Amino acid sequence: MDIKVNALIIAVEDSVAVAITELKAGDRAAFKVEEEIKTIDIVQDIPIYHKFSMVNVKKDELVYKYGQVIGKATCDIKAGEHVHTHNIVSASDALALAE
Question: In what order do the strands lie in the sheet with 88-90?
Answer without folding.
Answer: 62-65, 68-73, 88-90
